[in-house]
From TrEMBL:
Entry keyword set: Membrane, Transmembrane, Transmembrane helix
Membrane topology designation: Multi-pass membrane protein
Keyword field contains Oxidoreductase: no
Name recorded for this polypeptide: Phosphoinositide-interacting protein
Main location: membrane
Compartments, record wording: Membrane
Transmembrane spans: 54-78, 90-109
GO terms assigned for molecular function: phosphatidylinositol bisphosphate binding; transmembrane transporter binding
Amino acid sequence: MEIPPKSPDGSEKSPQSKELVTSNTASTLCISSRSESVWTSASRSKWDIYHKPVIVMSVGAAVFLFGMVITSLSCIQIKNKNVYKMCGPAFLSLGLMLLVCGLVWIPIIRKKQKQRQKSQFLQTLKSFFFNR
């Protein structure tokens, strides 16, 4: 094992200690955190709240329609009929699953929004009565 030479005045640090000293991991984690606190009252638009379920529902509807087209091609076209019969129902079920997941996601978000509003209201009442 080789030990790096130390300078006589002790000002020279090892590469590991330089890395530890200059690392700002904790501060960057706190800055990049996307969790919302009860204390933040920044109002968000409807699109910011519901964009993920809307995208999932849109993709699900598109995949479902694509599955309908492929399934109908298995009835019309004679060439590659087995491929259409296998892929059509798979796309139908995948699209339906995504569509239902998006539809169920919206009431869950609404319920969380109501709970968050109640929590913020209770926090303001609590701070009002206990900070006198």
